[in-house]
From TrEMBL:
It comes from the Bacteria. The keyword Transmembrane does not apply. It comes from Endobacter medicaginis. Pathway: Cofactor biosynthesis; ubiquinone biosynthesis; Quinol/quinone metabolism; menaquinone biosynthesis; menaquinol from 1,4-dihydroxy-2-naphthoate: step 2/2. It catalyses: a 2-demethylmenaquinol + S-adenosyl-L-methionine = a menaquinol + S-adenosyl-L-homocysteine + H(+); a 2-methoxy-6-(all-trans-polyprenyl)benzene-1,4-diol + S-adenosyl-L-methionine = a 5-methoxy-2-methyl-3-(all-trans-polyprenyl)benzene-1,4-diol + S-adenosyl-L-homocysteine + H(+). NCBIfam families: MenG_MenH_UbiE (TIGR01934). This is Ubiquinone/menaquinone biosynthesis C-methyltransferase UbiE. S-adenosyl-L-methionine binds at T83, D102, D130, A131.
Length: 258
């Protein structure tokens, strides 16, 4: 974790709270707070992704799609799919039916507009749903992805358990998420970008510095690579592994339902 992050609190008064960036908030309040963040940034989300990552998010997503190995007979559930990058990439690569799901209707609306522009509406099902309690049958999809969304969920273990539940036997789960930098010399540069440049970009481009401050903080409070891998095992996923990219700025975790 970055030196900018406060140490974890052991205050018993924080029982029943969860992280919202560096703040602790009552667990029931996080979802509407996250929803407000993404309502604010939805229309500028794709532009900001390019600015935030200097365009490298496209490389990370291409790697995820390669690992997904799309096939016409396989069905994808794209959790926290937002504006649709993973679903569109899956379909373009020859994957089968896809469910583009997000808890935030504003983000999903942008995804629907982008799908219409790409003539992909007929290949996609849109689902406003909480990834912690999916309104889908057990063993109903072959691949589940969540890209840059798990850190915004209140109960991450519940999301992982739901991902396993809806996977068919032999199905595979993938999580692409910001993680813990593995090269010490890179950490100060990354911190400066995240906490000094990023909120200013958010203010200039999206008119919202506060939401991008939260996004930077949420990265630093997300579980480290091995901690997330252990959470996946606890959720019942097997053959869990992860791959660092860009010196650990992001990682792709995967696990199977066997």
């Amino acid at each position: 974790m970055s030196a900018n992050a406060p140490p974890p609190s052991n205050n018993p008064e924080l029982a029943g709270t969860v992280d919202f960036g560096y703040r602790q908030v009552p667990s029931g309040e996080k979802k509407p707070m996250v929803r407000a963040v993404f309502d604010s940034v939805a229309r500028r989300y794709d532009i900001m992704n390019d600015l935030m990552s200097l365009g490298i998010h496209r490389v990370w997503k291409r790697r995820l799609l390669t690992l997904l190995a799309p096939r016409p007979h396989l069905e994808l559930l794209d959790l926290a799919g937002g504006t649709g990058d993973i679903s569109f990439g899956w379909l373009a690569a020859g994957g089968g039916p896809a469910i583009l799901s997000d808890i935030n209707a504003q983000m999903l609306s942008v995804g629907r507009e982008r799908a219409a522009e790409r003539a992909m509406i007929g290949d996609l099902r849109f689902l406003v749903a909480d990834a912690e309690a999916l309104p889908l049958p057990s063993a109903s999809v072959d691949r589940v992805t969540i890209a840059f969304g798990l850190r915004n969920c209140t109960d991450k273990l519940a999301v992982l358990r739901e991902a396993r539940r809806v996977l068919r036997p032999g199905g595979r789960f993938f999580c692409l998420e910001f993680s813990t930098v593995q090269v010490a010399a890179l950490a100060p540069v990354y911190d400066a970008w995240s906490f000094k440049v990023l909120p200013r970009l958010g203010s200039a481009v999206a008119g919202d510095a506060e939401s991008y401050q939260y996004l930077a903080e949420s990265i630093r409070t997300f579980p480290r690579q091995e901690v997330l891998a252990e959470m996946m095992r606890e959720a019942g996923l097997e053959r869990v592994s992860y791959e660092n990219m860009s010196a650990g700025i992001v990682a792709i975790h995967s696990g199977w339902r066997l």
